[in-house]
Amino acid sequence: MAKLNPTIAPVDPVWDRIRREAEEAIAAEPLMGGLIHSGVLHHDSFARALSYRIALKLSSGEMSEQILREIADHAHASEPDLGAAARADLVAVFERDPACHRLMQPLLYFKGYQALQSYRLGHWLWQEGRRDLAYFVQMRVSEAFGVDIHPAARIGRGIMIDHAHSIVIGETAVVGDNVSMLHSVTLGGTGKEEEDRHPKIGNGVLIGAGAKVLGNIHIGHCSRIAAGSVVLSDVPPCKTVAGVPAKIVGEAGCDQPSVSMDHLLQAVPQA
């Protein structure tokens, strides 16, 4: 069996497209050249560009950009799943957010995406036993982006956090794959208990703006939580819940609510 030529560069369609978009953006707006060169074109891979962006955003007088970048580079080199999850999240934003017209945008401009990738770095540190550094990343994500995700929380791939103001996700929360949530969502506890106390969100769930999901409850796959709802009990798969406290008001309306991003409740036929 012939060996692969080690000089052949790996194919990365996502990164190739981002670089093309970056060059087109500079041609259209030369004043953005410095930012786009430093954020995209200066780097030889998507992982390094992402590490640079995270380090730039999270650095402070307490922790330099250089140190944070070395930590992020090491994390991506040690755990390829970080890059795979970052690509899945990027594509999710591109496909679901009507305000996103280029793959480059979340990487450079969208704080929901940047906060989520920063959380992923903190989660890697947590799993490596580097708890204080993970807490530092959590603190800086909260200060820089207004998003507070405990580094122990478990979050799947293909996640879109739109607008991302005031997102809170607690320590024992679990979020499945292909979930979409809007601003001011809380996945929180209900008291001072210290064990498993946060929600478990299934795959394909859509969580509307301002929704609060509280306690160790399960939200079934492909369900919808209406904006402003307070969910205190389990939700079966493929249902829509709304209200305070939330109640089932109908079916989810489609196979993948998180992808369709349809937040409207269907009118209930009158008897």
From TrEMBL:
Pathway: Amino-acid biosynthesis; L-cysteine biosynthesis; L-cysteine from L-serine: step 1/2
Transmembrane portions of the chain: none
Keyword vocabulary terms for this entry: Acyltransferase, Amino-acid biosynthesis, Repeat, Transferase
Stretches assigned to the Serine acetyltransferase N-terminal domain: 14-118
GO cellular component terms given for this protein: cytoplasm
Catalytic activity annotation: L-serine + acetyl-CoA = O-acetyl-L-serine + CoA
Keyword Repeat: yes
EC number: 2.3.1.30
Signal sequence residues: none
Keyword Repeat: yes
GO biological process: one example: cysteine biosynthetic process from serine
An example molecular function term from Gene Ontology annotations: serine O-acetyltransferase activity
Pfam family, one: SATase_N
Gene3D superfamilies: Hexapeptide repeat proteins (2.160.10.10), serine acetyltransferase, domain 1 (1.10.3130.10)
Cross-referenced InterPro entries: Hexapep (IPR001451), Hexapep_transf_CS (IPR018357), LbH_SAT (IPR045304), Ser_AcTrfase_N (IPR010493), Ser_AcTrfase_N_sf (IPR042122), Ser_O-AcTrfase (IPR005881), Serine_acetyltransferase (IPR053376), Trimer_LpxA-like_sf (IPR011004)
SUPFAM superfamilies: Trimeric LpxA-like enzymes
Protein family per UniProt: Belongs to the transferase hexapeptide repeat family.
Entry-linked NCBIfam families: cysE, EPS_EpsC
The protein's name in its UniProt record: Serine acetyltransferase
Species in which this protein is naturally found: Wenxinia marina DSM 24838
